[in-house]
Structures are given as C-alpha cells and as structure tokens.
Amino acid sequence: MEKLLRQYFNDDRFVYIASDHADLQYHTGMANESNGDFFQLYLRLKKDRIVDAKYNVSGCPFMIAIAALYVEIIQDKTLLQAAEIQDFNIEKTLELPINKKDRLFLLEDALKNCIKHINRG
Amino acid sequence: MKSIYLDYASSTPLAQEVIEAMVHVISNDNFGNPSSIDHEYGKHAHDVVEACRLDVAHLINADQREIIFTSGATEANNLAIIGSYQFNPKNNFGTIITSMNEHKSVIEPIKTLEKEGLKILFLSSKRNGLMDLKDLEKNIDEETSMVSLMHINNETGVCNDIESIGEICKKNDVIFHVDAAQSIGKVPIDVKRLKVDLMSLASHKIYGPKGIGALYINGESLGRVASILKGGSQERGIRPGTLPTHQIVGMAAAFRLAKKHMDRDLSHIRECRTLFLKSIANIEGLVINTDDASTFPGIISLCLPGLDAESIIFGMNSIALSKGSACTSDSDEPSHVLRSMGLSDEEIRGTLRISFGRYTTMKEVSIAAKSLVKVVKHLMLIKGH
To answer: How far apart, in whole angstroms, are the C-alpha atoms of residue B229 and residue B91?
Structure first.
C-alpha cells in the first residue's frame, strides 16, 4: 500500500502549472478544509467529455495521493462519469485510514464547483 | 536501506560502551536485589548501584545522596511536582508558576493539582520561545511555592536561562524545578552554582537506556519530597520499587561518556547545524522558529508555512525526523508549545523538528538537506506556487 501511496504522492503528471497552462481554457473549481488542505481542479472539455484534467493540491500525503489518483481516473471521462466515481474505489486503492476518509469530500466538492463554473459559461 | 536518523531529541541509540557495560552486568550474575544487603548477591548489586549513583551525580556536580533513580524523566517530573506538593503540610503550598511550553509530563501533573484546588499560573513565552524573566519575577508573590521551567525545550531547542531563573527563585524563597531531560549531558550543568532545588534527568536522550532516569533533590534547600508511589523504602523512601541494576549501569555509563565527550559533541552538533542551515538557506518561505543565540544547536524547529509537515516528512523518505515531540507526534492535536509561542495554525502545520547527535555524519546532514529541498520543491509545484 505504501508503494502506491508514495507513487501517487510523487506523481506530478497532471499538476496545473500556471506558467505552462494559463493560456489554455480551463474550467476550475476548488474545495478546501479548515485544516488547510485544499484541492483545485482544472478541466478542459470537449462537449461534456474531459479532454484534459489538471489539479493543484496541498495537505497530508493521503490528500496529495488522492488528488493525483482521482485526476488520473477522470481523464477522458464525461462529467457524469466523473461525478459518479465511487469514493470507495479510491479509498480501497490507497487503503485510506479512517481519519483521512473525509478528504474524499474535497474531490466531490471541487468537481461540483467546477461544474458550476462550466454552467456559468 | 536504513533511514538516516535525525530525531535525536526524541531518543538516541545506545552508545557501544553503554551496551558493553549493561551486557557485562547482565551476564555476570548481577541479578541480586540492591535492597537485599543481607547477602553477597544483594550487597554486590547495591555497591554497583551506588557507584553508578556517583557517576550520575558527577555530571551535574551533585552529591550522591541527592540522586533518586526513577523510571525516566516523566516520572521524575511527576515526583518533583506532586511530591513537593504532598510533602508540604496542607494549605501550605501555594501557587505553581510554569509555562505552556513545558513537556506534557510537567503540564499534566500540574493540571492535576489545579483540579485539586491549587492555583497555577501558566506564563506565555516570548515569540522566540524564551521565558520573559521580568514577567516571571513580576508574577512571583508571597503565595508562590514553586516555579517549574525546562532547561532546553524538546520541540524547539530553546534554552531557558536557568541560572537567572534560579536566582529569582532563590531571592523569593520559591522551589525551582527544572526539567533537564533534553539538556543533561549535552550542556554543562552545575547544580551547586545554579540554585536549582529539583532537576529531572533522562538517560535515553544521551545514548543510555530507556526506562531509567533520576530526580536531583537539593540536599541543602529541600532534602526530600513525598513519594508518589507506595510500597517500599528504596531510595530513602522517596521512590519505592526494586532498582534495575542493569538500567542504572547503562545510565551511568552514558553519563560518564557525556561528561567526557560533551565539548566534542557540542562542537560536532554545531557543525551539523551550520551545514544543514546553509544547505537549505535558499528554500523560499523557510522560517526557523527560534533565535540561534538562545537555541541548543542540536535541535532545529523549522517552518514552511503553507506546506504540511506530514507531507514533507513523508516525501523525505529514508530520513527519520519528526513534526514535533515524540509524545505528541502521534496525535492530531497541534503542538501546544508552538501554539504558546504564538505560531498560527498554518505555521504549526508546516513545522518540523530536526535534531542531530553524536553519531550524525556530515554526509547524512547533506543528504537530508538535499532531500528537504527536493521535497519542498515538489510540494510547492503541486500546490500551484
């Protein structure tokens, strides 16, 4: 388990870098916790399909790994498919401790905020 | 691959000489009870213990009879505080002054006494972690019975001026207790000069075994405290319980070594600190939480606001360090010490403790510094900095 946790912790394939990506048109949504953890999602869509998903994240190792894994999963999914991704898949993959499971809500909230951003046009 | 160990403030490996001393005493039938002096087995163990007591006393320039062995500094702290209170006639023990920067093994027994009706005053430190001596003196009054302040802080390395604090306490006829768990064997301590009444000592922070420590009780000013354990007359009735000869031998060996190598160890630790800080100097936003001049060089409390210390440590794979004290690192509660110093939640979250020791090599320091730089760069990239 730690191997996978470490793999996603170190994964920066889909990290949003302003200097590289600012010119591209991303819809964005963010969620944060009172403890300082945050997750910001950036999506580029073709119709309703995610053609490119990126993120920024800050928090504990599990938060970082969750973010990287989630954004990997939602690449090339429709918005609906992304919204229907079950938390327990991520939870099971990374064997999240009980006290870290609430971090999953940030993914859901960020996607919702992103969709709001999309709907605002 | 074995991790590089940079958590010497938490605990230390046994020195080879300590292992040899302990193995020798264990292997040579020194199983006698040091209290059973009616036969040769007990007498021999007793003699070994008393010789070790002298070694422990020597390190702080105390008399042998002023050293009471305990199971560690935590017990010594409890004994000092609760034992002092219980030794005094009812209603004759007034306010205890301490600070929220103290170790939990000082704060918790004091809070227990608070629940029993004793008045406690928790002083705040300055932002750099040092106690404000003017504030302390101002708050001592005719009702104050005890001041308990640590020498070197386990989380930050801040070194209180216990000589001046001792003078203030002496002038006001107030018992002065010092938790010296982090400082014993690392910096010179002379209890005859320092006007300390009680001092808690640990073994495992200076390459000795865990499970053994001592309380120094000034023979002239105090003489004794009440026992907080019941059921025996060992240690002049102050600390009942069969003495662990092998543990005491280990502690004494560690203390002898500390006395011998103190200057060399301190010089080495300073070099480690200098190299480490130089190697990480370019990390953006990095803050050292304390002032160099008032900090023991072996402990660095560094802060990366906006980053998560747990992630930094996780990313520094194969480097063993900590977020804070060992006693609090497995808790989600923010450090009470850092909070007391006025750090924000964000700063507390981003603080880690690195501590060097006798066996730290310059290569290890260099590797750790490079690892920190790399991890911070990664975390800042993914944060969107």
So the answer is: 22
Give the distance from residue B8's alpha carbon to the nearest chain A alpha carbon, in angstroms. 24
Those of residues 63-122 in B touching chain A at CB distance below 8 A are none
Instruction: Write the burial class of residue B87 (CB in 10 Å: 0-12 exposed, 13-18 middle, 19+ buried).
Output: middle
Residue range B183-226, pLDDT digits in tens: 999 999 999 999 999 999 999 999 999 999 999 999 999 999 99
Chain B CA closest to residue A8: B315
Residues of B in contact with A55 (CB under 8 A): 382
Q: Measured between alpha carbons, how far is A7 from A72 in angstroms, rounded to an integer?
A: 12
Check A56 against B306: CB less than 8 A apart. no
The answer to whether B182 and B151 have CB atoms below 8 angstroms apart is: yes
Contact A33, A106 (CB under 8 A): yes
Helices (H) and strands (E) in chain A, counts: 6, 3
Write the CB contacts of B314 (distance below 8 Å, at least 6 apart in sequence).
A6, A9, A61
Does position B326 have pLDDT exceeding 60, yes or no? Answer: no
How high is the ipTM of this complex?
0.94
Task: With CB atoms and an 8 Å threshold, state whether A10 touches B378.
Answer: yes
What gap in Å lies between CA A99 and CA A109, rounded to an integer? 18
Q: In this model, does residue B231 exceed pLDDT 80?
A: yes
For chain A, residues with pLDDT lower than 70 are 1, 88, 121
- Of B198, B174, B178, nearest to B96 by C-alpha is B174
pTM attached to this predicted model? 0.93
Distance from CA of A10 to the nearest CA of B (A): 8
Contacts of A40 in chain B (CB under 8 A): 384
Residues 6 or more apart in contact with residue A120 via CB below 8 angstroms: none
Q: Do A58 and B314 touch (CB under 8 A)?
A: no
Residue B23's φ and ψ, nearest 5 degrees, are: -60, -40
Structure confidence by residue, pLDDT tens digits, B40-63:
999 999 999 999 999 999 999 999
Residues from chain A contacting residue B306 (CB–CB below 8 Å): 36, 58
Amino acid in the structure at residue B328? T
- Placement of tokens 């006290």 in the chain: A99
In degrees rounded to 5, what are phi and psi of residue B69? -75, 140
Question: Considering only alpha carbons, which residue of chain A is nearest residue B314?
Answer: A61
User: What is residue A90's predicted lDDT score, i.e. its pLDDT?
Assistant: 80
pLDDT at B356: 98
Distance between A28 CA and the closest CA of chain B, angstroms = 13
What is the rounded distance in angstroms from the CA atom of residue B155 to the CA atom of residue B123? 17
Mention every residue, 6+ apart, whose C-beta is less than 8 A from residue A34. Answer: none
Q: Assess contact for B182 and B74: CB atoms under 8 A.
A: no
- List the one residue out of B334, B262, B330 whose CA is nearest residue B298: B262
Closest CA to B303 of B267, B357, B331, B341: B341
